[in-house]
Specification:
CATH class: Mainly Beta
Shape: globular
Largest sheet: 5 strands, mixed
Number of helices: 1
Radius of gyration: 27 Å
Strand content: 35-45%
Amino acid sequence: MRCQGFSVLVLGVLLPFAGCGGDTGDLPAALPAAGEADAAPAYDPATAAASVSGAIFLEGPVPDMPFLDMGSDFYCQRAGVGLRSEEVSVTDDGALRNVIVYVRSGYDPSLTYPVPADPVVLDQERCVYRPRTLTLMTGQPLLVRNSDSTLHNVHAEAGGQTFFNFAQRSGPREDTEVFSEPAVPVHIGCDLHRWMDTYLGVFDHPFHTTSGDTGRFALALPPGSYQIVAWHERYGEQVVSVDLAAGESADVDFRFGESPE
């Protein structure tokens, strides 16, 4: 049977139609939904069936940290009495605090990783930053709080690139910033109070943490082979490789120390 095409005039527009069924090889079966063709599969946290944990130790003598010089700011002089630099801080058993720990390689970059909606909080209290180190994801809110009764300046940069730089008036005051690209370490300082320092790790995946106040860390990971990095502001970085099977937990300790003279 020979099929003929036909046309229909609708509101002055001539629309062609196929006259009958048959070969549709030149026509798409269905149009993809908007963004469907480019959508990457989402990471399932339930696949993190392995883990790595450990401690970060400082070997050798602990350097004596000086008292902070609070400069000419009268408020800081009063609020910061007795505070020492936290560049190197250890627990009673020699574990090193404030180390950024993260996965450098081994995670699946083709997946999309959900960004936490809860903000990470960076506070300014007694004219120092709390905490000394923190980590977050790109797109996750960083809530910068000024709990001090004095003006601060919040200046974030890495490798010569400034991410943000703003004045924050006397507290209580809160501002929110978002990083659009990963970077580690990001230094945040106050241009008005040069002793103030904190360091961030910004990542496009969720496999990161810090040793915090305990000098210890833990990461839940999918089975795989990984490079795990520990970074400290004074001692630099160390890298270990781990292979993890499903249900396996690996113990990894990092050991830093002063370089010989």
